[in-house]
Design goal:
- The chain is an all-alpha fold and 246 residues long.
- Helix content is 75%, strand content 0%.
- The longest helix has 56 residues.
- The C terminus is likely disordered.
Length: 246
């Protein structure tokens, strides 16, 4: 059997490893909350833009003599914008529902799987949002030309403004992403902490508890006090003072 001091040290070590792993999972949960919040923000804005695009498609009154080529680009760009934004809303909703369900109700390690999955899906969501935004501006570009066909000066000035806004949105978005870009290889990783054992195997737990009991029996036979030596729970109990978690 194990020496009493070695037994307690082994149990304390495994308990410490288990607590470290639990804390690492809590940190991973913060990363999950970050991704979930980002998707909620993007999904909300995509829904708003989809509403604007639907209004542009339904409420737009075309002049009888409108150019067919301009009408072709206008309706196609607005349709692409509407579909891209609806796609973005559907994906963010699916990710929020499925990711949250997996992280909270899945098997051991589901939090890590959910976080990694949401991180991998973020690019296609952001890409769809960008497509929806720029195609809406493109539809506006051709729409003002159609509406202001009888006033070339106004059409020219508004198309210049829209073109400038499209350029600034692209350049400023690129500038912001470049400011906050980082190498994924340098990102904080909890893999070494998450690899720690979460629980004692049952056979090892029986050896630890058996060592406690043998030591207590030896001390009791010699007339000593065993109240501070024996563990307060068995390997199958889930208590705060237990060294063993099933």
């Amino acid at each position: 059997h194990l020496h009493p001091g070695c037994t307690m040290l082994a149990a304390d070590k495994l308990l410490l490893q288990s607590r470290i792993r639990q804390n690492a999972i809590q940190l991973k949960e913060k990363e999950f909350t970050l991704h979930n919040s980002n998707f909620a923000t993007v999904g909300t804005q995509a829904a708003v833009i989809a509403g604007f695009t639907m209004t542009a498609l339904v409420e737009m009154t075309m002049p009888p003599n409108a150019n067919r080529i301009l009408k072709f680009f206008y309706f196609n760009l607005c349709t692409i914008s509407l579909c891209a934004n609806i796609y973005c809303v559907s994906q963010t909703t699916c990710l929020a529902v499925a990711g949250t369900s997996l992280s909270l109700r899945g098997p051991d390690g589901s939090m890590i799987t959910a976080v990694d999955g949401m991180f991998a899906e973020r690019n296609q969501v952001f890409r769809a949002f960008g497509i929806g935004l720029f195609t809406l501006l493109g539809g506006m570009f051709f729409g003002v030309i159609i509406i202001m066909d009888d006033c070339p000066e106004a059409a020219l000035s508004t198309t210049v403004i829209i073109g400038y806004v499209m350029y600034m949105v692209y350049k400023q978005s690129q500038r912001v992403f470049e400011r906050f870009v980082y190498d994924e290889a340098d990102s904080t990783s909890f893999d070494d902490l998450l690899d720690l054992p979460m629980a004692l195997p049952r056979q090892a737990a029986q050896r630890v508890v058996g060592g406690f009991r043998d030591a207590a029996l030896l001390i009791r036979n010699r007339g000593g006090d065993t109240s501070q030596l024996l563990p307060t729970s068995t390997p199958s109990e889930h208590t705060e003072n237990s060294y063993v978690y099933d």
